[in-house]
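During the second half of the funding period, the structural biology subgroup turned its attention to how the target accommodates small molecules. The most pressing case was adenosine-5'-diphosphate, which had performed well in the primary screen but for which no bound structure existed. We therefore specified the complex as follows and requested a full 3D prediction, including the ligand pose.
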Amino acid sequence: MKNTLLKALAIATMSTVFILSGCSDNNKEAPKITRIAGKTMGTFYGVIIPGGYKGGEEPLRKICEDSFNEISDVISTFDPNAELAKFNEHKSTAPFPISDALSQIIQECDYQSRRIDGVMDISVGPLVNLWGFGKDKSIHESPTDEEILQAKKLVGLDSYELRHTPKGAFLVKKDPNVRIDLSTVGEGMGADAVAEILSRQGVKNFFVNVAGASRSSGFNPKGQLWKIGIEDPTNPDHNVFVPVCPKGKAMSTAGSYRNYFKDDKTGHFYSHIIDPKTGRPVDHRTMSVTVIDDTATVTDALDTGLLVWGAEKALKWADKHNVAIYTIEDKDGKPVGRYSKAFAQYLKCDIK
Ligand code: ADP
Ligand code: MG
């Protein structure tokens, strides 16, 4: 069970988060810091607590691993014992009883999905599999138009239904082959779960990240706001493109540049972000979308969909709805950053 969330996210980005100026100087009396890093969920996670965590690294590691395992037990599509995996294997249109935890995350994803016209779609699973990013197999050639058409029939917000009854929540498939894929929000859920435990325990200053999704609170070891770098997707080393201070909010980045496959015949690269409307991987010059909001579950749900839209449409939507987003486009090999009005405050790192 240990590695299940990592496995669930094994196809997800390996992008990590750059913490800028977070380490203490070589002072005579270096402040105590608890810092852990792990690879517990098919991706990387890390936690930094300036001032130190009571009990040190081990209890902190346990909090993280327990949280990730709990999430994985619900949403993994790789672990056959996970609740969502069982639902996916339930090849029937008969209502399938689900836990409150699964019903809540599906409800949240549906809500976020409707905000962005269904471009983030948790029923995208059959297309993810078809394009070789699912649990089934990796591929070397693009699927045929006919295969895409068939898979698309199983995708869409109307392909499943969440029912709340006095007997509890049920999830219903329109077709027995419908699959739900929550991996797009797994990282955000992990970061939120750990952040919520630390906040409840009264830890004021911390930084948590699961791959590209992070939660931070208070100040870094230097007593400054946490500063996080958005990567340059056009640079092979993925250097920091722009520093951002999320000021206590959650932040995550979806990128089309980390996880892809190359069609051996055509040499074309295909991203793991799929446009549910076309049934194909996104193929435009928007390389990444970063979102800042209250929870990493929300940012992680939105970033994927906004990346499907691409910078132009995503920025228009974000300005209309007052959402903080930062996009990076590849213009002739050069990264070009643009951001919504609500994002401007996070590019300023002075403490007001
Ligand atoms: P990134 O790796 O860029 O951070 P995420 O890990 O958040 O992105 O999500 C990517 C995963 O989400 C894909 O590997 C796939 O399983 C799933 N996915 C792809 N396209 C969509 C989509 N349009 N809506 C929802 N989930 C998607
Ligand atoms: Mg995402």
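Two results from this model are relevant to the next phase. The pocket of magnesium ion (ligand 2) is lined by residues 184, 254, 300, 303-304 (CB under 6 Å). Confidence is low (pLDDT under 50) at residues 1-15, 24-28.
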